[in-house]
Amino acid sequence: MNEKHLGKGSTNPPLSKGKLRLYSMRFCPYAQRAHLVLDAKKIPHDVVNIKLSDKPDWYFERNPLGKVPAIEMESGDCIYESLIIADYLDEKYPQRLLHPKDPIQKAKDRILVEHFSKIPTNVYKLFHGSDIDPLDDILTDLDLFEKELTLRATRFFGGDVPGMLDYVIWPWFERIDAFKIVAPEKFVIPSERYKKLKEWKETMKEDDAVKVTYIKPEIHVQFFNSYKSGNANYDILVK
Amino acid sequence: MNEKHLGKGSTNPPLSKGKLRLYSMRFCPYAQRAHLVLDAKKIPHDVVNIKLSDKPDWYFERNPLGKVPAIEMESGDCIYESLIIADYLDEKYPQRLLHPKDPIQKAKDRILVEHFSKIPTNVYKLFHGSDIDPLDDILTDLDLFEKELTLRATRFFGGDVPGMLDYVIWPWFERIDAFKIVAPEKFVIPSERYKKLNGKKQ
């Protein structure tokens, strides 16, 4: 997981027998979704990190779009797009089903994920500047989740343990404290407004699957700053 | 299905016993996806059309985003977003499963739908004008589907009968001839490049 990120001219390490291959980037929130599902369901896998600023040619044979995450099976089949990977893993590996059993609840959770998908775009606008201040939109979308969690009255959206919805939104919540360090004047989130989400965030940090890939705010900040300066340092955590 | 579109000040007709309610708009390609799945699986339903230029207030209680399609169940539960509706229906109603049985094939088909999703946006740009001519992007995306259909060597993407992928992309292919009439100088699709897709369309 903390391996050096491979760039142009590198060789793709051979697949390991009995394991899925996950192509990732250590700081990518979308790739983290795939890690969380693999770790929550304890699916044997290995990880190859991709240097996104200098992608190896062989990677485009796995994902023609060149993005992470992607998974490769021993059969040679490759799947990409974080939510498609998450759903595939839940269907193929029935241990600890992450989606709700009830089809209606599953559909409602997917609608929530759809609503959530505007947040990453708005966070990007917040950092890089845009015509319209996206903070209100972000706060309104967060209101939806605060309301939902309050309604469900459970520790997690998924109930007593995290489910698919919890894991799929987690990567951005993990980065909130880092966002506040990088741009405190822009990233103003009134905690009083999000009591339940705050509790949820602290509880999620204790989850075994979350702990596997968890990166503390200071390191996220280090990565953001290197990325903003145009010289992304993917290998911060490589020993 | 061909009922008057209801706008502000209208009343939502009561739900029919034993039937899902589909909120639609007769010419909306996204809503058409929901119709196709309901009709392919022969799921009992009725249809209420929404006047999108003048939405009734009661509709926002079904879909807070105010878009079609949305479905409402007798329980009062509502679901919206065309692909989420399609997947829900296929899970809930096992007759004539539209998604491939193999999880890998299902994932690959969903990736193709993801690729396809750029086409509606590009068609819009084509009609309304934009900085970059989107025609090449549209043709490149269509190439992907032509190649896939050729590879599968079946009548439909789904095999001998249409599957989820066929139905989910169909509404835009149905409209191609109309696009060509509306803007023949912009909508230039070389048929030779898309032999298989042309055949499938018939």
From TrEMBL, chain A:
GST C-terminal domain sequence ranges: 102-223
GO BP term (any one): glutathione metabolic process
Pfam families, A to Z: GST_C_2, GST_N_3
Statement: the UniProt record of this protein carries the keyword Chloroplast: no
PANTHER family: GLUTATHIONE S-TRANSFERASE OMEGA (PTHR43968:SF6), PTHR43968
Domain GST N-terminal as annotated: residue spans: 18-97
SUPFAM superfamilies according to UniProt: GST C-terminal domain-like, Thioredoxin-like
InterPro entries: Glutathione-S-Trfase_C-like (IPR010987), Glutathione-S-Trfase_C_sf (IPR036282), Glutathione_S-Trfase (IPR040079), Glutathione_S-Trfase_N (IPR004045), GST_omega (IPR005442), GST_Omega/HSP26 (IPR050983), Thioredoxin-like_sf (IPR036249)
Keywords, comma-separated and alphabetical: Oxidoreductase, Transferase
Protein species of origin: Zootermopsis nevadensis
Keyword Repeat: no
Name of the protein this chain belongs to: Glutathione S-transferase omega-2
Family: Belongs to the GST superfamily. Omega family.
A GO molecular function held by the record: glutathione dehydrogenase (ascorbate) activity
One GO CC term on file: cytoplasm
